[in-house]
Amino acid sequence: xxxxxxxxxxxxxxxxxxxxxxxxxxxxxxxxxxxxxxxxxxxxxxxxxxxxxxxxxxxxxxxxxxxxxxxxxxxxxxxxxxxxxxxxxxxxxxxxxxxxxxxxxxxxxxxxxxxxxxxxxxxxxxxxxxxxxxxxxxxxxxxxxxxxxxxxxxxxxxxxxxxxxxxxxxxxxxxxxxxxxxxxxxxxxxxxxxxxxxxxxxxxxxxxxxxxxxxxxxxxxxxxxxxxxxxxxxxxxxxxxxxxxxxxxxxxxxxxxxxxxxxxxxxxxxxxxxxxxxxxxxxxxxxxxxxxxxxxxxxxxxxxxxxxxxxxxxxxxxxxxxxxxxxxxxxxxxxxxxxxxxxxxxxxxxxxxxxxxxxxxxxxxxxxxxxxxxxxxxxxxxxxxxxxxxxxxxxxxxxxxxxxxxxxxxxxxxxxxxxxxxxxxxxxxxxxxxxxxxxxxxxxxxxxxxxxxxxxxxxxxxxxxxxxxxxxxxxxxxxxxxxxxxxxxxxxxxxxxxxxxxxxxxxxxxxxxxxxxxxxxxxxxxxxxxxxxxxxxxxxxxxxxxxxxxxxxxxxxxx
Length: 559
Fold this sequence. Notes:
Elements: H1 2-15, E1 31-33, E2 54-61, E3 69-76, H2 79-91, E4 107-114, E5 116-119, E6 122-129, E7 135-141, E8 147-152, E9 161-168, E10 170-171, E11 175-181, E12 191-197, H3 203-216, H4 218-226, E13 230-231, E14 238-240, E15 248-254, E16 260-267, E17 273-279, H5 280-283, E18 291-300, E19 310-313, E20 316-319, E21 325-332, E22 337-342, E23 356-361, E24 370-377, E25 381-386, H6 389-398, E26 405-411, E27 417-419, E28 425-428, E29 431-436, E30 440-449, E31 452-455, E32 459-461, E33 467-471, E34 481-488, E35 491-492, E36 497-500, E37 510-513, E38 519-524, E39 531-536, E40 539-544, H7 546-552, E41 554-558
Parallel strand pairs: 2-9, 11-17, 18-24, 25-33, 34-41
Antiparallel strand pairs: 1-9, 2-6, 3-4, 3-7, 5-6, 7-8, 8-10, 11-14, 12-13, 12-15, 15-16, 18-21, 19-20, 19-22, 22-23, 25-29, 26-27, 26-30, 28-29, 30-31, 30-32, 34-35, 34-38, 36-37, 36-39, 39-40
Helix pairs in contact: 1-3, 3-4
């Protein structure tokens, strides 16, 4: 993200057209005044601030008196960004499309309200007290979306005096004005969701402007970032401005039921608010859809106990009462909807059921108004891996964190084993409890490394069983071991990075470094696959070492 921002800053500085682009911050030379130097003719005279400190002021150019508000932001450089800059400068990797100066890395953390005074031709922002900073941004705006913007660096960091940002030019807003046709006789509020069609050649400039425009119209800015719909007025045009100067926008009309129609693409013209009409009948040829209210109850397993605390979905969330009842209004009646029931989680011991569970609601044509549903969160069953003290000690001795790792496996009707997910692995005094949700034949692979695992005994979990035990026996003494030898041009490579996996991709790989002899010991290997990655001496190597381990116990890697 940081790199994208830096690239944008550089591109904007390079591509900024010269005469007075509609959406470019003002570019007069920056002056630092330590005493009052007067005010341009377009603004009324200002008195120098009597209090000691640093003050900022700017002049707003206009054809009439300014009627709006202003914000000022001080931009600071983080220690991390400064360290990155120094390192890139040392490496000489900064390019012409990156930041041209350290000040370009400064970001505004907080916007401050600034006084704005009208004049016969525009107005004046400030003076407003500001902290010393490498960069500042000034934004002024009027209710119709017209805005003034300056982004500048003072060059020096004076502690007192007045910073003059110069003259800021007015930018007419880019946007759309939406008229809704065919909605007068329909109940509820229509809204529109906006998708940006960004011109890749101007993406960075538009992205840099977006937080500035969000100050001018916060609700519209929030909708652009989060994709939330903007309500439309049924009896008047709805003006959406200012928008970033993109190539176009796609408008999705959302009916009161939640159903969407569209998209309608509108080409944007910078500095112009484009009118557009959204026809309800054309965008919803099958009707605007209906909604239903779900009146339900969520229970735990086959009991009468409540099974959740909260029900959430794309349309919001609703609480579940002590009896498990809930009511969900405005649920789409024309398509399936997925809901998530949240139960919460208790610390310690085996949980009774999943902390969250999904339910799908599929409406039918017969469903109208209020629909009653009953949902049941399944209870956990448990497969418990038992180990005696010697086996536990042996496992812990051989494992390196994050190992040991436990992997649940289930046998299918053909007798083949495959890994299956489990929501809970609960450590217990003499083993590990693994959660199950349905009957079947199970075992657990216990791994001390991704390439060294062994299965527990097998257990059959019946429909009426709530818990079954399996046992893990001690690993046999001795057994084949393996190690990696890394060389470059016949010489051992010390400190080479070695990463090794196994046959189970869900298990995290092991990593280490070769010793002074270029060796790294894997230990016991039971896996049929041994994917490896080695990096050292400026070279890389990838391959599978399982066959070499079986044949000689050594994987020779020549970089």
